Each structure stands twice: as structure tokens, then as C-alpha cells.
């Protein structure tokens, strides 16, 4: 056997393409037809329920996580407001000492304090 004989065998193998059987083609086409999308029939179309008032309100504040955060912040504010920790009371006493007018208390410094170079 020579090198040209092998090349001739490869050329013959390339020329012969296998043909699928008719039964295989029928099964492939039947499977493809079964997977084709079909238009929904008007009798089986389902109407999605409209969201109610409470579900729209809940989704407006961020869902369940937003409601949990809002509840936590509300309860923390009520707790600090009614049962002030001693550190909050001490800070209030320092800021509003006896006889100090409420309108003279400066809780936020002016913008000029931030512009000064150090």
C-alpha cells in the first residue's frame, strides 16, 4: 500500500455521506412538531389577578424587607423617645443648660467652619 492508496481511500470516504433512514427522519420531525409553540386558546387563557390595596402599599415601601426596616426604625424611635438612655439625657442637659434659650443652641456648625484651613 502506498501513500496515494491511503489518500484515495480517504477521498472515497469523504464522498460517501451517510443518509439517515426514513424512520429516523419521521421521529425527528415528530419531536420538532411537538415542541413548536402553540397559540393559547381563548378558552384556556387565564386572567392574572389584580394586586390589592395592601399588596400595592407593601410593594411601594420595598416589600417585606422594607416593612421590616420601617417597623424596626419606628420601634427604635419610640423606645428612645419614651425611655431615654442616660447618655441621651446627659447630652440634652449639656446642650440646653439652665436658662439657655432654645433658639441660641447651635447643633449644626456653619459652613465657614469647614472652609478654614488647618
Structural features:
118 residues; 6 helices; elongated; 58% helix; mainly alpha
Topology:
Elements: H1 3-15, H2 22-34, H3 53-60, H4 63-82, H5 86-95, H6 112-115
Helix pairs in contact: 3-4
Structural notes for this entry:
This protein has 118 residues and is mainly α. The protein has a domain of 57 residues. It contains six helices and no strands. Helix 3 packs across helix 4. It starts with a helix and ends with a helix.
Q: Kindly estimate the percentage of residues that lie in beta strands according to DSSP.
A: under 5%
- Unreliable runs, pLDDT <50, ≥5 residues? none
Distance between the termini: 95 Å
Q: What's the pLDDT, averaged over the residues?
A: 79
The count of DSSP E runs of length 2 or more, i.e. the number of strands, is 0
Radius of gyration: 40 Å
Counting H and I runs of at least 4 residues, what is the number of helices?
6
Order of helices and strands: HHHHHH
Strand pairing plus helix content: what structural class? Answer: mainly alpha
Roughly how much helix do the residues carry, as a percent range? Answer: 55-70%
Largest sheet: none
Oligomeric state of this protein: single chain
The backbone outline, from C-alpha atoms, is elongated
